[in-house]
Amino acid sequence: MSQFGIRVSQKEYEKLKKDKLDDGHIDNVLVGKKPAGQLSFTYSRPVQGNVITEW
Fold this sequence. Notes:
This protein is an alpha+beta fold. 25% of the residues lie in helices and 15% in strands.
């Protein structure tokens, strides 16, 4: 799997929405990384922990 969704707070969603509406794209698209050899992700944005793998 190379893409998935992650749950964020309403405040973070509004911040990203404003950024997208400003010029048509999100400037900082990186949400987190999974270092090689580790089972968990390191997030660079506030997240609520739920991952969406199918939709």
